[in-house]
Amino acid sequence: MLRAPTSLLSRVHARSYATAPSPHALVFLEHRQGDLESASLSALTAASQLGGQVTGLVVGSPDEVSSVIDKAKRLQGLSTLLHSSSPQYSTLLPEAVSPLFEKLLSQNSPFTHVVSAHSSSAKSILPRVAARLDVPAVSDVTSLEHDAASGSTTFTRPIYAGNAICTVRAPSSIPIKFFTVRSTAFAAAAVEDAAEIEVKTLDPVEVSDPPTEHIGTSLTKSDRPDLGVASRVVSGGRALKNAETFQSTLYPLADALGAAVGASRAAVDAGYADNSLQVGQTGKVVAPELYMALGISGAIQHLAGMKDSKLIVAINKDPDAPIFQVADVGLVADLFEAVPEMVEKLKQ
Amino acid sequence: MRPSAVRLLNIFVPIKRAVDYAVKIRVNPEQTGIDLNVKHSMNPFDEIAVEEAVRIRERLKDAVKSIKVVTIGPPKSAETLRTALAMGADSAIHVEIPESAPAPEPLGVAKTLRALIERQKEGVDVVIMGKQAIDDDAGQTGQMLAGLLGWSQATFASKVVVDPEQKVANVTHLMVRIIHNISSHAVNFQFFEEPRYASLPNIMKAKKKPVEKLTTAELGIDLTPRLETIKVTEPPKRVGGGKVANVDELLAKLKEAGISGKHA
After folding, report:
1. Which residue in B34, B176, B178 is closest to A160 by CB distance?
2. Does any CB of chain B come closer than 8 Å to the CB of residue A144?
3. Looking at domain B3-219, which CATH architecture does it have?
4. Which value does ipTM take for this structure?
5. Which domain holds residue A241?
């Protein structure tokens, strides 16, 4: 009936050190279509701030990995690059990938930290691995400081949808400190040409009879910049009325500015926009140079996803909309008039 | 008369009592946490999980044998369990912790849930839970539970189709469709159809549904946090820059900030 819990790894935190080991971070480097994800480059920057060695890990299908390692080994801040490929890793199912992490982290592992972007695949995989190693994890870190003498690491992270900032310390009694990084809080690590780093192949850990099978993927295709990393974002809310007016109003402005398109939860729930466009506590967190909130009231859940933007511009009919309390530039107007006028004038 | 060829599913739904999502929270003067003397309700993502469990039963009828909701929290969490029972869950377990106890960490919660699942005589086939709690925003418990149990997991699900005969669940999450073996399955939800409101008769009925009370000592679980909370502070305040009168002024402000048309 119930599957017996498979052999859980014996507690790793029984190890004790006379002095704290110097930090050695393992950074999970994610990639897509032959390119490293920029959020992983931010994770690498965060890992470098620990002040010790940093090893990168690239996992994927044989094709993907071979096209990514050339770029990955030139990343500034990496001392070693590990890569592991297997047809089983082509979709990064947590059940297939976590045994590789477990093996890497349990056999006299040199690693003191495991770092990744706060991305959806890392969020799926790393807590699973942490639990199997019997260590807690820290999510969505915005700053960190490692105390080499005591072997403890202090992190700050937003809680309550970004309405409070919590400072937590992972003491030395946690032998491997797992954390995911809010990419907008750390600059992306640079790619340099000269770096010579050690590149090692890691044998995949084949999972026979995996309990999960990937059937298919459907991606939202778009020529606009990716929402998570765009320097400008134009976002629409419930006031856009329907999917057609959402597109016909927002897209020309986004194109005129070279911006990505985002949406509030209300717009997503009402079917105006795909949920991959959602900005907020439950969607993506963005921090572009320019964030334009059009017909968005500014619920705290939405603000959680965009209030670190450099310049916030809001257009709303309601002068009392809470968005105006955070907007650097506010315009009380009917967006169906104001937005086309802006597009016109931006083109001039 | 129950069809014997179909496997009867027992569904577990862990839920959490949290500060209501609409409350504007305040950090306490001691900077140890936030002021908790405010309205609490069920974590919104957990409401979605309860709703989905009830809908799975509505679709599969007798193939779902039980829906059990579980919470780990102070005495007041009992209200949250009653809400879930009024939405359609059959029974509940309350692992009670003292009001003054620090909030348990996801790993501790996952271990408690594992202990509870292992105590169920008829076993548990599917665990459905919210993708994150809106207070700690950790988003780890479901994955940790699946890891501890060695079960399959489907995070951020937006659609779930359960086939009890084939023992398979087809889960769409983040636009990816994945098949899961149903006999070992933990799903956590991102968002879904609107959770239902409990009607008054259902609220009355929920008062009679069984709630089992347990303590962490009975389960042999230690919920002491392993991470130390040093302090909780207000985020830097963002102050609005005021309003402009028209589109021209708005564009002038953009220009001032160095933003002009297409790829400046």
Report:
1. B34
2. no
3. 3-Layer(aba) Sandwich (3.40)
4. 0.90
5. 232-347
